Amino acid sequence: MPHGPIHCFSAGMTQQHTILIVDDEPHIAAVVAAKLRRCGLRVVTAADGRDALSVLRTEDVDLVISDVRMPDTDGVALVRAMASDARTAHIPVLIITGLGHDLEDEAMLGPRVVGVLRKPFSPRELAAFVQRALPAHPANRAA
């Protein structure tokens, strides 16, 4: 079975869907990206919120997965910046956070936050969150 422990999603979630992973720890971003790529999704990465906003200007993204604690622009600032921009306000965001970092609740982050996933998380948990959060159709890539 090619995707064994990865616990991939249903058919229809393909490389046409693009996920932006935002994390200042390269090894975490690499592991999450590898899991999602093995499930057939297109993945782009950013090292912090500032980089993510730059990527969002050039890529049609279907879902953002962002860490909370990062230098410069953190995950909360990223979510707020996305919400204030008509080009990115519609994009769902999945927040990932370490066990030591407590968030009041998803509502404080904004309506596009579709969940908070605490580290360490399993491939099954990640896949379930991504499947629920991805739109049925990929972002429009027409010029």
Describe this entry's structure for a reader:
The chain is of the alpha/beta class. It has a single domain (4-133), classed as Rossmann fold. 30% of the residues lie in helices and 18% in strands. It is built from four helices and five strands. The chain has helices at 26-38, 49-58, 75-83, 123-133, and strands at 18-22, 42-46, 63-67, 93-97, 113-118. Strands 2-1-3-4-5 form a five-stranded parallel beta sheet, with helices on both faces. Helix 2 (49-58) runs parallel beside helix 3 (75-83). The longest helix is centred in the N-terminal third of the chain and has 13 residues, at 26-38. It is globular and about 30 Å long.
List the helices and strands and how they pair.
Blueprint: E1 18-22, H1 26-38, E2 42-46, H2 49-58, E3 63-67, H3 75-83, E4 93-97, E5 113-118, H4 123-133
Parallel strand pairs: 1-2, 1-3, 3-4, 4-5
Helix pairs in contact: 2-3
Major sheet summary line: 5 strands, parallel
Give the H and E element order.
EHEHEHEEH
**For this structure, what is the CATH homologous superfamily?**
Response regulator
CATH 2nd-level architecture:
3-Layer(aba) Sandwich
**Percentage of β-strand residues:** 15-25%
Bulk shape: globular
Total of domains: 1
Radius of gyration: 14 Å
